[in-house]
Amino acid sequence: MNDALRILHRAAPVMPVAHFQNLDHAQACAELFAEAKVPTVEVTLRHPQAWQMVKIFKDIMPFAKIGVGTVVNRRQMLRAADEADFVISPGFSAELSILARKTLTPYIPGIATASELMAAMNEEHRVFKCFPAAAIGGVALIKALSAPFPDVTFCPTGGISPSNYQEYLALESVACVGGSWIVPSEDALNKDLAGFLAMLKDLYAS
């Protein structure tokens, strides 16, 4: 089992795809996730202080694997190799794949088509983020791709919710899903911290 696949199995059933409003929000979520023993978190690079947020999670959750998401260029990949446990991209880049191998960084590229899947497989990848999953066909698309590519594993992300994530997890080729719904907003934390803690503990109980 390669490192990327280990990351997905560790993250199951849901990898939090985390975009925070500010550093205080990131700190509060890291403390919540630590108490709930969330095993894996993807911190997206969608905020100017995202790298500081990655450090917050690394400091507060030393037992977890903390990854960097939305990595789209060489500079981000090299920094992620130093500061995170794994890297996720919304698409596939051969350059990023080469850098990941050179830096021994677990890398999960994104794919949306069979052609992208084939290009990534040519770079020895077998573990993928399927993005944006719901918008490009959802469960039906993953079923269709899994037939000609039976040895690949997916983490569908995008449009995944409490109402449909089990449909994805029922597929043999899906190791986990990526979800933002399990990352509470600041308002939600203030209103129902206990409720979110209970939900997370239940989700990862198995």
Automatic annotation (TrEMBL):
Key words, A-Z: Carbohydrate metabolism, Lyase
Cited InterPro entries: Aldlse_KDPG_KHG
Molecular-function GO terms, alphabetical: (R,S)-4-hydroxy-2-oxoglutarate aldolase activity; 2-dehydro-3-deoxy-phosphogluconate aldolase activity
Enzyme Commission number(s) of this protein: 4.1.2.14, 4.1.3.16
Broad EC category: lyase
Protein name: Bifunctional 4-hydroxy-2-oxoglutarate aldolase/2-dehydro-3-deoxy-phosphogluconate aldolase
